Amino acid sequence: MEQTNIELIESATALIGRTQYQTVVNSGGHGIITDEPLKADGSNTGMNPFSLLLASLASCTVITLRMYIDRKMWPIEDVKADVEMFKTLNGTRIETRLSFKGEVNDEQRDRLLKIANACPVHKILIGNIDINTNISA
């Protein structure tokens, strides 16, 4: 059954040639190199896919927080998100530690935590995801 009301959010293209695991990724008019580390027989010329996933979450989190902080005109200079991924007995756990340069009171801290957990990438990662893979001719 085909779904209706589907909206394209973003797209990406990845191309790998013969250079051991070096991949060119393009999305939104920008390009990056991804790779695997040397210990995985890669060339270590770019972030690996797990690093890229964590970078997406970290950057979305701080961008979302910066937008909110700017709207509230709070005197916070820097927002930092340290994100780590762990393999657990039940699957995968991602932990994010936020830090701020500037004064943040307890009420602001609570609100910023809620805003961080509402960033679009966070919502996607904890939400219902369908991934359909096909081979084109």
Structure description:
With about 140 residues, this protein is α+β, with helices and mostly antiparallel strands. It contains 3 helices and 5 strands, in the order E-E-E-H-E-E-H-H. It has helices at about 50-70, 105-115, 120-125; strands at about 15, 25, 30-35, 75-90, 90-100. The strands form 2 sheets. It has a 3-stranded antiparallel sheet with strand order 1-2-3, with no helix packed on it. A two-stranded antiparallel sheet has the order 4-5. The longest helix is centred in the middle third of the chain and has 24 residues, at about 50-70. The model has no long low-confidence stretch (mean pLDDT about 95).
Short structural summary:
The protein is of the alpha+beta class and 137 residues long.
Query: Given the structure, what is the number of helices?
Result: 3
Q: Ends: how far apart?
A: 23 Å
Query: Which percent bin holds the helix content?
Result: 25-40%
Q: Order of strands across the biggest sheet?
A: 1-2-3
Q: Tell me the strand percentage band.
A: 25-35%
* Stretches with pLDDT under 50, minimum 5 residues: none
What is the succession of H and E elements? EEEHEEHH
Structural class: alpha+beta
